[in-house]
Amino acid sequence: MQFKTKSMIGETWQRLLKNRLAIGGLLVIVFFALIAILGSNIRPDGSKDANNQILEISRQKPGFEVEVLKITRNQLIESVPFYELFFFGGKESEHKYIPFRSWEILGDSIRVEIFSESEAYRQEIFFFLPDVLYAIDPGKNVIFERGLYTIPLVNGDFIKVSLEQMQANIPYQIQKMRFILGTDKFGRDLLSRIMAGAVVSLSVGFIAVFISLIIGITLGAIAGYYRGWIDEVIMWLINVVWSIPTILLVIAVTMVLGKGFSQVFIAVGLTMWVEVARVVRGQVLSMREKEFVEAGRVLGYSDQRIILRHILPNVLGPVIVISAANFAAAILIEAGLSFLGIGAQIPMASWGAMIKDHYHYITTQLAYLAIIPGISIMLLVLAFMLVGNGLREALDIRSNSY
CB count, 10 Å around CB of 356? Predict the structure, then answer.
């Protein structure tokens, strides 16, 4: 009779599946991760950083709909490969959007009544049809002769069209836009900004945790294995960094490195390695006295091989749990830095910066402008904490033994 034994990973996964809260948190993380990875391909506003501003429709409520006239920009827009639309990608908008209440074609012009919340305020603007339809070279003029318009394009070419052709193409420049979560104070689609903010939060969390793991595991393993004066020096460094409030240390590092998105990665990562190092050191101290480590020394294995191939694989359980908690902490720290203005810089979408831009609306009917990004932060942080707690229970063999 044969018995099949499950691997440690398989058993851990089976125990984790029984934890509904942890699985719920994992699904939330996967949901936000998909939004981040797919990037501008699934956002209503596919421009880079979802930064398409239409000031005429700023601070509109969720579900707002409006018709817009697409005015072709007089500049050469480079095509973007499909793969660059993922994650931080996006394509510069080829049009300027003019929201309107009504429109009418008058000869070689189009008259639009600009959208306004006030019925008493009416503003009409006339646009030359070639300016609406084509990217015209600003250094050259449109020439009309023999019933045709000769239009110089920004790419150096010329096109000849009749008035009837342009009038027939105008309806294709009319688009109806719907904003599921409304617009922010700059007239940007709030849903698209929330989706773009997920990229920032997950990126900071992932890279900061990666940096903290590299530093923490390295220093913790060296301190725990070699002990002596090496351990004392590393522990002194750990205690010094541990004694400084995390947010103050992050701000100090950010000030030294400068403001910016990449600086946030380094700043957060350099302040989160301490707990990893302490846990790894304690685990290595207990592991180095085990029989299999002694056997490795007797067989003449190098210290590097013993640490990397025999000790560290046995201490990864607690490290994984800490990483989940650190991921949540990194998201909170990034949001706090962006709220203070020293995190991700404009026009990059950041949930913390979105709260900063709209927190003064919190006592008005526009409170959702600050509440929605706040809820997004709460959901993602809570998800990582639930997964971390679930992993701790799944990896605790004693609590799952019979």
Answer: 18
Model confidence over 119-160: pLDDT tens digits? Answer: 767 889 999 999 999 999 988 888 888 889 999 999 889 999
Cβ-proximal residues to 131 (8 Å cutoff; 6+ apart), any chain: 71, 72, 74
Report which of 293, 286, 312 is spatially closest to residue 218, judged by C-alpha positions.
312
Q: Which residue has the higher pLDDT, 365 or 9?
A: 365
Question: What does the alpha-carbon distance between residue 121 and residue 58 come to, in Å, rounded to a whole number?
Answer: 16
Q: Which of 122-126, 288-292, 383-387 has the lowest mean pLDDT?
A: 288-292
**d(C-alpha 329, C-alpha 333), whole Å:** 6
Buried b (16+ CB within 10 A) or exposed e, 230-258: ebeebbeebeeeeeeebeebbbebbeeee
- Domains by residue range for the chain, with CATH: 8-34+191-400 (1.10.3720.10), 49-185 (no CATH)
Q: Residue 243 is encoded by which pair of tokens?
A: 């004694």
What residue ranges in 107-188 does DSSP mark as E strands?
109-114, 124-128, 143-145, 148-152, 158-162, 174-179
